[in-house]
Amino acid sequence: MREPMNSDPTSPRQATPTAAGGPRIEPPPHMVAATQAAAFKKIWATGRPATTSALAALRSRSRADIETDLAWLAERGRARLDVDGNVIGIAGLSVIPTRHHLINGDRIRHTWCAIDALGILAATGGDGRIVSIPPGSRDTVTVDFHDGQPAPTEAVVFVLNDDTCASVVDHWCPQVNLFPTAEVARAWQQSNGASGEIVAVETAASTASPRWQPLFS
User: Fold this and answer.
1) Global pTM value
2) Given a cut of 50, is residue 4 above it in pLDDT?
3) Which terminus of the chain has fewer Cβ atoms in its 10 Å neighbourhood, N or C?
4) Do 206 and 134 fall within a single domain?
C-alpha cells in the first residue's frame, strides 16, 4: 500500500521500499546471482568490461555456464553484453557513459539511472559525489556523500511506478532521474505524463542501498 499523496504537490515524499529501491523483479537463481556479483565487482574495480573467461576463472565454472547466467540476466534487462558476450553493464553499473556517474575515490563509474548511482554510492559507506543530467537538460545535479550518506540537498529523484517492466535497463531506468528540486521534477512528470513518485534523495539512498550492499561483501 502506497502512502497518501503529500498535500504539497511539489514536496518530495517518503516512498515505499519497492518504489525507491527499484521495480519488483524476479530474484535470480543462486548461481546467476553469484555471477552477477562477480561481474559487478569486476567492473567496479576496473571500469572495464568483465569477460566471460575472467568470470569463469573467478567462479571456477565453465564459460558456457557463465554465458547461460549472463543470458538469464540480459533477457530481463539486468545486464548488457557486447557482441563478444562480455559484460558492459550489470546491476546498474555501466562501462558505457550515461547521464549519471558517481565519483568514489579515484573511481568514476557510470550507472543506468539515478537510483543506481544513489544506491551504489550509499552501499560503499564511503565519500563521493554523484553528477547527473536530468532528461532534456544540459545542467547537472550534484549530490555529495559522506560516509555513505548524502549531504543535505534540495535535489530529488523521480521514481517510476512500474513493477512489471520487461527490461529494467530499457523500460524502468530511463524514467528514473535526479532533478534539482521537487518543483522541477513535478513539472517534468506532468509534461511527460509519467506515473511515479518524487522522492527525497536521503530516502532514495537509504532505501536503495540494501540492493547493492551484498555486492560489496
Assistant:
1) 0.89
2) no
3) N
4) yes
